[in-house]
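Lab meeting minutes (informal)
Scribe: AK
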Amino acid sequence: MTDLSGRVRADPAEPPVRVTTVTTLPDRRLLLVHAHPDDESIGTGSTMAHYAAAGAHVTLVTCTLGEEGEIHVPELAGLAAAEADQLGGYRIAELATACAELGVTDHRFLGGAGRYRDSGMMGLSTNEHPRAFWGADLDEAAGHLLEIIREVRPQVMITYDGNGFYGHPDHIQAHRVAMRAAELAAVEGLAPAKTYWTAMPRSVLEAGMTHFAEASDNPFAGIADATELPFCTPDEEIAARIDATEQHAAKEAAMRAHATQIPATSWLYSIAGNFGAEFMGVEYFTLAVGKKGPGAGPHGWESDLFAGLDVDGAPPRAPVTSAGHR
């Protein structure tokens, strides 16, 4: 017989027997660690859709519900943190829709939905909320991610750099948690072989600044030099350029799913209308951990995050426990 926990009892008087179900995952397994719903679509949407369409197992871990986000849908203003404080729950649905657009079926919230709260921008009182991700115990949060790493056994992980790409406390914390979890996984021989950080090449930013110079919705207004932007990365430091232009429509659809956060008039859609696949479909990364694989061009940029890894055809070992302990 089976008890409510799913454990099998040969005899009601006997102790429960732990049952382990082993699931074989695809040869290529990619893990992404993001701070809030919408970060995955804006920063890595095309990459996620590209690998999902190619048959890789793509796992997205989102660290908070984004409760402190601005709301760009007037009819939903009452969901704000200062009002009904229901935005986080609404954004769960937005994220589900975005993942469906990207073809990603494995999405988790770190520690479970609502375990960690959006901390708001740096220096705000929201940083001190009891559940604010910014104040999370690092090893505890990394332990939640370690459980996922043990289950999925990703060869490649993507997160942010030490400044969280642009300085948001939750992005910085996501970086810390991801890197700490990888350290803990390494002790068990399970760490991803390569860890990438999202990045934007200086040459790409300069091209954007030129394009928007005379635009009324110039997102670079007041910026004289691309190096003033916290996420500006010298081209020679970029390790990978993922050309997923075939997925640009999926990325745009995923972004539009986050309607509370990205207004229909956003400059993101403006530039997408002018550059389309080129803007939406190409994403860049620096390599933080691991050996760079074969690349091309003046800086040897990889075109595949799994470049240099012996993954195709290798039998993946990813035990998943349906009940009890691993």
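Next up, CB showed the second protein from the same session:
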Amino acid sequence: MATDEHERQEETFANFVSPDKWKDFESHAKTISQELSNDIALSATQNEKIRTEVRKYLEKEYEICKASENQLAWAEEKLYGSQVCAVDGTYSTYPMLSGIRCRIGVAATSYRNKRTNGIVFVSEQHVHPSESSVLEILKSRKPENRLISGLLIRAIMFYMERKIALDRQEEWLMFNGPLVPFELRSGIGRMRALDPCLSLCEKIIDKKTIVGIVAKSTEDEIVSLGLALEPLEYLKLRSFEDDLEDWLPRAHFNNADKKRFRRFINTHGPCLDIGLYKAGNRAYIFHAYREHFHEAAALIIRDSLFQPMRAYPLLIDYSDSLCTYLLASSDFKRMVDFKLAKVDSLTFEQSEIDQRRR
């Protein structure tokens, strides 16, 4: 079986690089429109097949629920009554030879515009001692000696999102993404972050009135099931405990971290459920506390109705817009460019791509 799969992949690659697949620009310009139309038509046909044939499967395997008028009215009262806080974060990075520079920001808000935010500047220079020799400086710049990574940056952002949210007074907390994202359960290697991250996630789960909506899911096959749902419908897919159990063998933890993660699975894994909801044109995966699953679904469906085309909670998008407005990546990049220029280092440190003529 493995051999067949290997051969099939080789044949597919060979097809992609076959000379008869490649065209000159004029030939491509004449055919791309029709090729694209045919390709999109096939995708639409597949989606329609899912829409018509999967419904019976969902009705058999899951309990399909629909948010009632009473549930939506309750949710609207919570939203307009400033009982719901949405939290989102953003970060901007600038890679340099001496390590990455990054600005991380988090914003939390409600519909009554009660805002809180926090911003931090992170640099590789912060985690290395002041080297006294050229050899030590060069050694610190080797990739394996770098401590500031994309994983760490995202973990800091997600951690502070949850920390800031817990300081809020609203009854409900709404997050953009999973309630316990991968970054907060990875340990982040040498940073020894597993225990503080899991401890904070436990506090979030203990809050109970929480919900996380996954805007960009890697589970395309699950999101595709949403084609068979009608607007205002939702269903419970599985327990979050299942995801944690699948993750543990692949985590490569040391014994202490493995025990800590096992304790987290046992005490808090069963508390969360993963569901799928649809408020408008598309469906999203969400995570919620088991005992408040239906309330959480009603809350995010009602908030998503404010923008039916995107069909995603507006309050989260509002929080995201605050981050984008206050902490635009382009502003941070220009700021670093300016500081580099002042010390005559811009042309050496700036990305080669940014210096290309277009």
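CB comment: The domain at 70-89+158-326 is CATH 3.30.2170 (archaeoglobus fulgidus dsm 4304 fold).
No objections, moving on.
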